[in-house]
Amino acid sequence: MAAATTGTGSRSLLARRLQLPPPGFHTVMGSSDPVVMSQNVSKHPQELPSFKPKLKTIQVITKDLIRELIIPQERPKPCLIIGEKEYERIKESARAPAGVERWDRLKTLRARQDAAFEALKKAQIEEQRKAELEDKRDHRRDVEEELQQEEQKLLQRAARMRLEQEEDVRELNALFLNAKCNMIRDKQVLEKRMIHKELVEEEKRLDRMMEMEWEKGMEVQEELECQRKQELIRARRDIVKQMEQRAEEQALRAEELYQEGQRQLERLEQMKREDRKAWEQKQERLKQIRADIKRFNVESQRLKDQERERDRLEDERVLEQQRQKAEREAALEAKQQQLRLEKEKELAQLRATQERAQDWQAEQDALRAKRNQEVADREWRRRELEKARKKAELEQQLKQDRLEQVAQKEQYLAMQVEQDHQEFQRVLRAHQEQLEREKLEREQRELRQRAHAEYLRRQIQELQQQRQRERAALMAEARQQQQEVRQRSQRLAQFRQQKLQEFRATGIPDKYFALVECRARSRASRAPS
């Protein structure tokens, strides 16, 4: 039996020697492909010489030729050779991080997330402020464009008024020209009558012709007068229509300002409602967070209870295993004792039979049996001692493992409790900081809203004051224009009187002068209306 044990040990030692890698190399197990790592690798893997395995061949001899056939073999598994430093680095990176290191990494990651969230919030606030400034600039630009359009309209109106101011002078000159034409015509008629007294009939015919021409001229003049009156009526209607349109535009503009103010107030109300809704949603989120915290505490307590129950069941299972193991060992010991007794009985019977057959042989057999029995007894006692020692070591190891397991579990529970406490404190601090930030943002938003509302009210008030100033300026301009019209009328009257005097000083007959004066006065009396 000792020889068999020695043979088995030598074979296992030989197998282990055959499986060992060369000196300076490490073999990584646990994979389908072998990985051989050199301790001192001086060359790049690409620079290593390629090893081609020698192929097995078989020689086939036939009548006409001799051939060598390659015996197909399985492809060798690929190998990877890496250095010892790289192997240590891979082992270090494959190691699971400890609890403190994991907690530090988690805190670093959360700090980065909080920083990114703060940067995002600042960018959103900056974008909102830029949008508000852009809206203000657009509104101011619209107001300036509207003022420029009104100024251009006033300039066009003044230009039209200046063009209209020259019309009376042109009409008066037309009257003078018409009167001069009539006067020249009458003079020519009188001269012809004085020269051609003898041609009475001819003069009568000429008079009739001249009378007819005069009537035609009068008709043409009356038609021109009617056309001028119609143009004046149309011009008055256009002026009245423009004044009405101007009044309507002012009314519409005032209505638009009022509507704009109402819309601004509605927007302020909408913003208040949105703030109220956001506050309510925030309260709901706070309730949800409190409920989550409460549920988290309940879940933690439940997990702790489950962990205690699992520990109790594990203890019972270990005790049951130890009891079953003790029973199995006791049964095995009883069986071995029975086998030993049976073997002793067989040996006794064998000794008795051998003694009856031959005394000397019996003595020799007895001596051999005794020696064998002593060897067997020694081996049995050795095995029993080895089993007892192993059992004691196993019990000691189980006890040590159990103590270590309990210590690790207590340490894990302590770390878990500390982690839960720190997590709760972090969530509570984050929640408080979030509340503080939201309160600060709400106050800042309210300040901005109040400032914006005050700015809008001030802008609306400034626009109203500007409209009042514009209306006052328009009224002053209208009064000034009326004064200018009166002065212009006075100047035109004086100029018309001077022109009439100069026209009379030319020696025109009273008949034509009276006709021109009557028409000029009638037009002058119609002009102010």
Automatic annotation (TrEMBL):
Keyword Nucleotide-binding among UniProt keywords: no
Coiled-coil residues: 106-175, 240-498
Pfam families: TPH
GO cellular component labels: motile cilium
Keywords from the named record: Cell projection, Cilium, Coiled coil, Flagellum
Cellular location(s): Cell projection, Cilium, Flagellum
Domain of life: Eukaryota
Family: Belongs to the CFAP45 family.
Protein name in UniProt: Cilia- and flagella-associated protein 45
Organism: Taeniopygia guttata (Zebra finch)
Lineage of the species this protein comes from: Eukaryota, Metazoa, Chordata, Craniata, Vertebrata
Gene: LOC100231660
